[in-house]
Amino acid sequence: MVEQAVGFLSEMIKKGIEIDSFTCNVMIKGFCQIGLLEDAELLMYQFVNEGIDQDVVSFNTLIDGYCKAGDMRNALELIDKMRRESIFPDIVTYNTLINGFCRIGGFDEAKNLIEEILRLKQNAYISKIDFIRNQGSDEVEGDVIEGLDLEPNLITHTTLISGYCKSQGLEEALSLYEEMVKSGFSPDVVTYSSIINGLCKSGKLAEGKVIFREMERIGVAPNHVSYSSLIDSLFKAGNAMEVFPLQSKMVICGIAFDLVVYTILMDGLFKVGKANEAEKMFETLLKLNLIPNHITYSAFIDGRCKVGDVFGAQAILEEMERKNVTPNVITYSSIINGFIKKGMLDEATDVMRKMVGKNIPPNAFIYSTLIDGYFKASKEEWALEVYKEMTEKGLEANNFVLDALVNNLRKGGRMEDAERLFKDMTERGLIPDRVNYTSLMDGLFKAGKESAALKTAEEMA
C-alpha cells in the first residue's frame, strides 16, 4: 500500500499539483486509522525522499496511532526521532502520550511527562535569557529553543484526571484537580464529569452531588455523563425519588438521552421494583432506533429474571443472539440465577453448558449459585461435584463459593467436610472474610468443638 500511495503522490507531482505536508499528513493519518502504523511511518520517510519535509503534525499523527494501539514503546521512540530531526514535541505531542499512558494504567509515566513539560519550560526560559544576552534581542522563535512554547494545559490535566478516575485512583485525581485549580486553570465539563463519575463509582455519592452543584454554580453545564453518573448512583443507593427531577432537568436543558442513559434508567427502575416503567424505557429506546448493546440487553434480561419471568428473559437472550449481540458471563449468570431461584436446576445447568459451548467460561459467582442451589435441593453430592469441576478447570474459588459450601455443609451436619474444604481453600490462597469465619465458627460450636471454634475466632481477630 505504501508503494501505491507514493505512486499516487508522484503522479500528482508530475501533473503539476502542488503537494505540501498537509496532504501527506492526511495520507499518514489514513494509514494510522486502519491500523497500518508501520506502513504509515514508512510512508512519512518516503515523503521526505520526495522532498516533502515532515513536521510536528506528521509525528503527532503517528504517535497518536501507536498510543491508541497501546504501543507506547514505539510512540516514545518517535520522540527521539523527532529530536534527531530538530523537530520539537509540542503540547499536543505530550497530551497524546499522557492519554496513551493513562489508557494502559501508566499513571507514573503520565505524571513524569507533566514534570518533563515543566522542566523543559523552565530550562527554555533560562536558554532564552542566555540567547538575549548573547544576541541582544528578545525575538526568540519557539522552535529555536525546545520547551519555550510548552505549557501544561487544561487537556493535559483533564486527561490524567480522567485516567485516574477510570482506574480507581480517585485520591490522585482529586489532588491533581486541586493543583490544577491553584494553577489558575478553570475545569471544564469533561473535568467535572470525570470527577463526578469517579466519586459515584467509589460510593461517594454525596461528594459527587457537591461537585455537580459546584459546576452548575459557576456556569459549567452538566452533560449526559454528569447526569448518568449521578442517576446510576442514586438508583444503587435506593434514592429513586431524586432521579426523576434530574431526568426532568435533562429534558429541560435539551440533553438528549443516549443508549447509556436509557440503559441506566431501565436498570435502575427494575432495581427499585418499577418493572413496567423499565420495560417502557426499553420500548422507547427501540422506537428511537437506538440499538441495544450487550449491556442494555443484560440489564433487561436481569430485570425480567428479578420479576420471575425467566423464560421471557431467555427469549430476550435468543433475540439478542439473533441480532448478533454477543452475551457475556453477566447475561448468562442472570438467567442461571433466575432458574435456580425457581428451583429449576436442570434448566440452570443447561444454560451453563450452553455458555461453555460458546466459549464463555462460567465465573465463580455462577458456580457458587449452582452449589447453593443444589444444596437447597438436598443434592449435596451434586453440589460437591460442581465445586470439583470448578477446581479442575483452574477457576479460583471466592468467598461466595466458600460460604455456599461451608454454610450448607454445616447445616447438613457435615462439619468435617466443611472444615476440610475451609482448610483446602485457605491453603490455595483464599482469604476468608468475616461471614466465612462466622459460619464455620457457628458450625463448630453446634458440633461441640468449642476449642476449634475459639481457635477460629482467634484467626478471625
UniProtKB/TrEMBL annotation:
<feature type="repeat" description="PPR">
    <location>
        <begin position="258"/>
        <end position="292"/>
    </location>
</feature>
<dbReference type="InterPro" id="IPR011990">
    <property type="entry name" value="TPR-like_helical_dom_sf"/>
</dbReference>
<dbReference type="Pfam" id="PF13041">
    <property type="entry name" value="PPR_2"/>
</dbReference>
<dbReference type="InterPro" id="IPR002885">
    <property type="entry name" value="PPR_rpt"/>
</dbReference>
<feature type="repeat" description="PPR">
    <location>
        <begin position="328"/>
        <end position="362"/>
    </location>
</feature>
<keyword id="KW-0677">Repeat</keyword>
<feature type="repeat" description="PPR">
    <location>
        <begin position="188"/>
        <end position="222"/>
    </location>
</feature>
<protein>
    <submittedName>
        <fullName>Pentatricopeptide repeat</fullName>
    </submittedName>
</protein>
<feature type="repeat" description="PPR">
    <location>
        <begin position="55"/>
        <end position="89"/>
    </location>
</feature>
<feature type="repeat" description="PPR">
    <location>
        <begin position="153"/>
        <end position="187"/>
    </location>
</feature>
<feature type="repeat" description="PPR">
    <location>
        <begin position="20"/>
        <end position="54"/>
    </location>
</feature>
<feature type="repeat" description="PPR">
    <location>
        <begin position="363"/>
        <end position="397"/>
    </location>
</feature>
<feature type="repeat" description="PPR">
    <location>
        <begin position="293"/>
        <end position="327"/>
    </location>
</feature>
<dbReference type="InterPro" id="IPR051222">
    <property type="entry name" value="PPR/CCM1_RNA-binding"/>
</dbReference>
<feature type="repeat" description="PPR">
    <location>
        <begin position="90"/>
        <end position="124"/>
    </location>
</feature>
<dbReference type="Pfam" id="PF13812">
    <property type="entry name" value="PPR_3"/>
</dbReference>
<feature type="repeat" description="PPR">
    <location>
        <begin position="398"/>
        <end position="432"/>
    </location>
</feature>
